[in-house]
Amino acid sequence: MHQENNINLTILIPVYNEENFLIKLFDELKIYFDNSKIEVIIIDDGSTDESTKILEEFKDSNSYKFNFKLIRLDINSGKGKALQTGLKNSTGEYILFQDADLELDTKDSHEMYQMIQLNKEIKCIFGSRYLSGKLKKNNYFFNSLIGKINSLIFNIFFSQSLSDVHCGLKILHRSVVNKLKLSVNDFGIEIDLASQIVRNNFFIYEYGVSYYARTKAQGKKITWIDGFKSFYYLIKARYFDNSSSTNLSIFYSSLYMAYAGSYFGMGLGNTLFIIAFFILGSILGIHFKILSSSIIFFSIYVGSFFGKGQGTVLSVIVFFTIGIYLARYSKNFFLNSRFNNFF
Hints:
Elements: E1 9-15, H1 22-32, E2 38-45, H2 51-61, E3 67-73, H3 79-88, E4 94-97, H4 106-118, E5 124-128, E6 136-137, H5 141-158, E7 170-173, H6 174-177, H7 189-199, E8 205-208, E9 211-212, H8 224-239, H9 244-261, H10 268-287, H11 290-303, H12 310-333
Parallel strand pairs: 1-2, 1-4, 2-3, 5-8, 6-9
Antiparallel strand pairs: 4-7, 5-7
C-alpha cells in the first residue's frame, strides 16, 4: 500500500461519464507523474456510463507508483462540488487541477508543475489557451468569444490582466488553497477560485497550453449557456461576496460618480452619462474604501467650481484624475496600518 506522507503534489481530476478518455488519461499520468510523492485523486461525479468500472479496475491494477484515491459521489453534483470534495481529501504541497477529457495536454501539466517547483515565489499558475504558441483545435467560436469576454470583465472587476480565467488547468501552492472557501458547484468554480485568489492578494501567473476541443459527440459538456451563467458568477463574486465595508464603499462611490456624470451631456445623453458613471463608481468602490473614496469625491466637487460649460466638464475630469492619484497614495500609505479598512 502507498504511504500518504511527504506528498509533494496532489492532482485533482473530476470525472463524469468520461469512459472514452480514461485509459489514455491513465497512460499519460503514468508517463508524467508516476512518482511515490505524487497523489492522484479522482472524483467520480455520479457517472452513469462505464467510467466507474474503468476507475475501479485501474485502482485495483496496482500498475502505478503514485498514491491513488478514488472518491465516488452518488449523484452528479457538478465540477465545482467535485473539486471541493477533492480538496478536502488532498495532502500535497501543491494542488494541480486537471480535467479528464484530455482537451488540455498532460505534458503541459507536468511543465507547470516543474515551473512552480523551481520558483518558490510563484504560488499560483493558470493555464491559458490563448497565450500559447502550441497546438490548438477549436471550432466553437461562441464558447471562445464568451470566455474571452468573461476574462475581460474579470480583469476590469478585479484589476487583473488574465487572458483565460476559465482554463481548467491550474496549479496552486497549499498556502493558497488554505485561504479558499469555495462554494460554487458547477463550472462557475473557475470564477469563484480566481476571485478568491485575487482577494487574498496572491499573484496569478499564466502559462500557455495546448488545447484540443472535443465535440459534443465526443462528450463535451460545457456550452455557451454555461458561459452566460458565468456573467452571474462574475457579478456575484464582485458585488455580493464582499465585506460590509466594501459594499458600503460601492454604494457610496456609485452615488458620487453619478453626481459627477450629471456634468456631462444634455437630455438623454446626460442620463446615459449618469448611468455610465454610476457603473464606474461601483468599480471604484471595489478598490477604494470610504476615506480614500471621499478624496475622489472631494476632488470632483472642487473641480465643479472651475470653468463654465465645457470648461467645467474639463475641470471635473482633471480633478477626478488628481483625486484618483491621491486616493491611491493614501490607500498605499495606510495599507499596513489599523486604518486600512477605511482606505
